[in-house]
Amino acid sequence: MGYTAHMNFPIHKAANALATVQDSTQLLTKLTDLEYAQPDNTDPRWQRLPSNTTLNLQFNRLTKISELQLTALRYTISSYYPPAEVEVLGSIKKAAAFIQGRNKISYKISFPPTNITQLRIKLSGVDPIPAGHFAAGGKSWLLLDELVIN
């Protein structure tokens, strides 16, 4: 007689949601495609973005959310730094919003369950690159992976 192991593989609420950079029509499909990048800056599943970026997610219907998770790659020799600050704003139909090495840095931001149709994520990067680091004084970039919404 054997034992059975069960695993649950839930699909997060932002799977295949429309993701764009604010004030742009550029689609960022890598951020909601359910394909997760490896800790390698050449992995094509990473989404390369300027260090100070605002992302917009559009949901097809009213969605109750309570958490945002995102992963950023820290690879300082190539000027990739994780966000220094992440701000999350949700709204319904564009109403007023409410509220050194190579590492994958995970962020998890929890908040009271809230119904939304749009989510704005403001990412403030490390700019300029701090003294003592490779390319000190230069511009940093963000490499982001899946935006997981629960």
How far apart, in Å, are the first and last alpha carbons?
A: 37 Å
Instruction: Give a count of the beta strands, DSSP E runs of length 2 or more.
Output: 6
Strand content: over 45%
- For the record, what CATH class applies? Mainly Beta
Number of structurally distinct domains? 1
Q: Using the 3D structure, state the CATH architecture.
A: Sandwich
Multimeric state of these chains?
Answer: single chain
Put simply, the count of helices is 0
- Computed over alpha carbons, the radius of gyration is 17 Å
Largest sheet: 6 strands, antiparallel
Mean pLDDT: 84
Elements, N to C (H/E): EEEEEE
Segments where pLDDT lies below 50 for 5+ residues?
A: none
Portion in helices: under 10%
What's the shape? globular
Structure characterization notes:
- By secondary structure, the protein is mainly beta.
- It has a single domain (18-149), classed as Jelly Rolls.
- Helix content is 0%, strand content 47%.
- It is built from no helices and six strands.
- The protein has strands spanning 18-21, 47-50, 53-75, 85-91, 102-124, 141-149.
- Strands 1, 2, 3, 4, 5 and 6 form a six-stranded antiparallel sheet that branches.
- It is globular and about 45 Å long.
